[in-house]
Design goal:
Elements lengths: L14 H4 L3 H13 L5 E3 L2 H8 L7 H10 L3 E6 L2 E6 L2 H4 L32 H7 L22 H4 L5 H4 L3 H7 L2 E2 L4 E2 L1 H10 L5 H14 L5 H14 L26
Antiparallel strand pairs: 1-3, 2-3, 4-5
Helix pairs in contact: 2-3, 2-4
């Protein structure tokens, strides 16, 4: 069953995708609508062509090989059955909460030679996600107040615990983030946008409260979850009352004097 998916402006300007044939680019978007909520589908070129490219004369297997070679998808085998994993799926798609769970097994972490693909693609899913940094769906951060927000920054805001970061000073971190908790970290741009969007609440106070909540039960994407909670809180909070200026009647500088006094 086909499903509605998200597409970002960066898709049209991605350098790696531009090296694929035009039909391969269309096929890539079509795969999103066929894939399940985990970004997986059966690797059946004839069936995929009938669903995505029914009116075009094309070798779907060849087009899939191009997308695999550019690391946009991973073609793999489990128990003799062939499947496709769309790489960086969770980074760019937000499936509906009621969408059925995936019935397709995950990729085996052991190298598997499938359809003559280069060795660099015979790695685990985790390794592939680390290698692939140019997925075409990259774009600017959207306004958080969205019914179906998409964010490409959330997974990259937290600083890794490498030795290089241990030497970073507090001053350096303060200049990077306008708000920094254990889970929630907002740069100055996002913090300013949220202040403007959620003007009815004390943003810093609410962020600290959410940060404590997320420490106990961290969501998959804190940026999206936080924006939804703040939006709800903002809509249900009355703006602070400010007294209106009272218009005083003009002062009487002279008494009324009849003309014929």
């Amino acid at each position: 069953m086909a499903r509605a998916r998200n597409i970002k402006p960066g898709f049209f300007t991605n350098d790696d995708l531009a090296e694929c044939e035009p039909l391969a680019r269309i096929l890539f978007v079509g795969l999103w609508t066929v894939a399940d909520r985990e970004g997986r589908l059966e690797d059946k070129p004839r069936k995929i062509k009938a669903m995505v490219l029914p009116y075009d004369e094309a070798d779907c297997d060849k087009l899939l090989a191009q997308l695999h070679g550019k690391n946009f998808i991973t073609r793999y085998v489990v128990d003799g059955n062939e499947f496709i994993q769309i790489n960086n799926w969770k980074k760019h798609q937000n499936p509906h909460m009621k969408e059925a769970a995936s019935e397709i097994p995950e990729q085996d972490t052991q190298p598997v030679d499938i359809k003559g693909a280069p060795e660099k693609h015979h790695t685990s899913t985790v390794q592939e996600q680390e290698e692939n940094q140019t997925i075409p769906a990259d774009s600017l951060n959207p306004i958080p107040d969205s019914l179906n927000p998409i964010n490409t920054q959330a997974e990259n805001t937290a600083c890794p615990d490498g030795s290089e970061n241990k030497s970073a000073s507090v001053h350096q971190m303060s200049s990077k983030y306008a708000f920094e908790g254990e889970v929630i970290r907002l740069n100055k741009k996002d913090f300013t946008e949220w202040q403007s969007l959620y003007s009815n609440i004390d943003l810093e106070h609410e962020l600290r409260r959410l940060d404590i909540e997320f420490r106990a039960d961290k969501p998959k994407n804190w940026f999206i979850t936080a924006s939804q909670k703040l939006n709800y809180q903002n809509k249900n909070t009355k703006p602070a009352w400010t007294p209106s200026k009272r218009v005083m009647p003009p002062s009487r500088t002279q008494e009324f004097i009849p003309e014929n006094f």
